[in-house]
Amino acid sequence: MSKIAIVGAGMMGTATSFPLSDNGHDIRLVGTHLDSEIIRSCQEKQVHPRLRRNLPIGVKPYYIDQIVEALDGVEIIVSGVNSHGVHWIGQTLAPCLKPGQIIISVTKGLEAGPDGHLLLLTDVLANELPLSLREQVQMAAIGGPCIAGELAGRRETVVIFGSASSECLDTLANAFRTPYYHIWKTNDITGLEICVALKNAYTLAVGYAAGLLDKQGGLDCAGAHMYNLEAAAFAQGCMEMEHLTRLMGGTSAFAYGPPGAGDFYVTAQGGRSVELGKLLGKGHTYQEARLIMAGETLEAAAIVHQMGKAIPAMTVNGIISETDFPLMRYLVRLVVNNERLEIPLDTFYNYLNPIIRQ
Amino acid sequence: MSKIAIVGAGMMGTATSFPLSDNGHDIRLVGTHLDSEIIRSCQEKQVHPRLRRNLPIGVKPYYIDQIVEALDGVEIIVSGVNSHGVHWIGQTLAPCLKPGQIIISVTKGLEAGPDGHLLLLTDVLANELPLSLREQVQMAAIGGPCIAGELAGRRETVVIFGSASSECLDTLANAFRTPYYHIWKTNDITGLEICVALKNAYTLAVGYAAGLLDKQGGLDCAGAHMYNLEAAAFAQGCMEMEHLTRLMGGTSAFAYGPPGAGDFYVTAQGGRSVELGKLLGKGHTYQEARLIMAGETLEAAAIVHQMGKAIPAMTVNGIISETDFPLMRYLVRLVVNNERLEIPLDTFYNYLNPIIRQ
Predict the structure, then answer these.
(1) In this structure, is the dihedral angle defined by the CA atoms of residues B284, B286, B287 and B292, taken in order, positive or negative?
(2) Closest of B274, B270, B324 to residue B301, by C-alpha
(3) Chain A residues touching B257 at Cβ < 8 A
């Protein structure tokens, strides 16, 4: 039995408490300053309102101002914030951390620095820690196809834990693994984080096709959907995941494994990224769609904004050509430039030898 | 304008008549001996009953006994049969073919020879032709994410045309390409045919997860599906597509392009392979499911049967290890051996370095 803290009481962070509870750990669930209502519900009713489930046994909820108490003596800290909270959690954890602790992140995203250089979110978090501490805690990330509500429902789930340290991975796998929470391990945290971050962006294109169907009047007289268009975008998304993973030194095979095609598949089954894409496909600009979805965390838009900085920088630096990443460039035009335009199918697949268009 | 015959009046063969019609070709749609009702409806009402659409202009329906007349002077022949009809169409076309004609197949599958060696269906068809003729006609295949009903509805669709001959591909692309039918070309017909054949098998596993959800009472109190399990199977399916493609000398990158992940995605959106998988997931044996779906062509079961011959042969010959292709081996046990058993998640991803389980 270990003492484990989850910081960030959103759906995914809290969902990890279910396998941890089943393994008998002492779990402290710490809400951020945005999670006060969730923590109140957890304390008063033992119900997580967004997961719509009772907290599992052994999970004690804490408000953010109790974080020092909550983190006392813990061996593992789950970073359960979204991509907008990564700097914050690094700064918040910094004064509380002890040498030997492990931080494992469920956050999906990448951050483009001022020069457009892409950073993994585990590195962004680590960069907020004092240098001396940075070398004494270990960082890990969770990726792979996992809808939080299904994990909390103890549905069969496959995930990949990534960390530079194999010892850290063993500790984590032992703490989290249950008969329904199937854990694989990788030292390629770069490939893992890139794939799981990008899939949110590319899900916009799948949702776009569904929205376009609505815009054009829904199913036709013979019941035809627009799955062919969804699938065309899905394939291009997988290809661009592979390309960026390869460029950043990750395992390009992840594109057709659980972190890539697997996580992309599950994300395309529904959720906020699909919904945002649908609004764009129906003809709304991103600004309009953002208002319609006010209050929601839109990780898909967040990663597109970051790629909107990274792609031009990579192009100028000669790392990629102007015809590479046509789907991401298109998404940048929709989300960052607020344009309305159709999916540019005829620009796809141009670097999957030996497929050619002309 | 060309003269083009489509032999096999099923949904996919007939769907290709829509872009061909839009390009102004003279099209002859020839039903097989199983398609008489379809041809009758096409002749009497100009309606294709399974596509639930009017035939496009320029398409003339023929019964099988009119095939000599129908094939007279055609430049391109679309083979629209299913995998069970490949020997038949080769034998049927043989006496009618003329040097210089092109045969393009929409058929998805592979065939294991007596020694378990896998053959492409375009080769199976060609092997039915006299040797002298075999060198004077060109073979091609269509793969990629295309639901027939959407193509017939002129929805945006991406496909890959494959042939050893680039000249043949140019002729075909010129004949078929329309603003909604987006055609890419490849000389790697091996990689193309393998991916699009296997995706039908792996879709059984996605359907299985959906059926298991039903068996376990459907959505739980918080609305949780079993998409995590579907996605875990989806990723393993993509990985096994890559593996077989590589073993047979095809382009392994197809696994995350339109022939692999793309075609798999669209197939998993619904259809007979999903339905068959659902029945298995609900707890039916394959024999029971086959009776429930009596009369339906089950390409998913057909390819699993072929792989049930190929996998043991490849294992005995040392081409693969006993732990390779765990998902296909599982599907063989369900479909060929008629067993009931759960998806063996913990055997997956064992050859995607650097992901490890233990």
Answers:
(1) positive
(2) B274
(3) 235, 238-239, 349, 352, 355
Tell me whether B238 touches chain A (CB under 8 Å): yes
A294 touches chain B (CB under 8 A): no
Under 8 Å CB pairs connecting chains A and B tally to: 245
Is the reported ipTM for this assembly greater than 0.90? yes
Residue matched to tokens 């509870």? A21
CA distance B218 to chain A (A): 12
**Contact call for residues B71 and B62 (beta carbons, < 8 A):** no
Q: Which amino acid is at B246?
A: R
Exposed (0-12), middle (13-18) or buried (19+): which is A219, by Cβ within 10 Å?
middle
d(CA A346, CA A350): 9
Window A:26-55, CB contacts with B under 8 Å: 51-53
pLDDT tens readout for residues B153-210? 999 999 999 999 999 999 999 999 999 999 999 999 999 999 999 999 999 999 999 9
* Residues forming a β-bridge with B7: B30, B79
| CATH code linked to domain A201-347 | 1.10.1040.10
CATH superfamily of B3-187: NAD(P)-binding Rossmann-like Domain (3.40.50.720)
B199 is catalytic: yes
The domain spans of chain A are 3-187, 201-347
Contact predicate A255/A245, CB 8 Å: yes
Instruction: Give the start-end residues of each E strand in chain B.
Output: 3-7, 26-30, 47-48, 53-54, 59-62, 76-79, 102-105, 110-112, 118-120, 138-143, 157-163, 181-186, 355-356
Residues A52-63 pLDDT 10s: 999 999 999 999
A3-187 and A201-347 share one CATH topology?
A: no
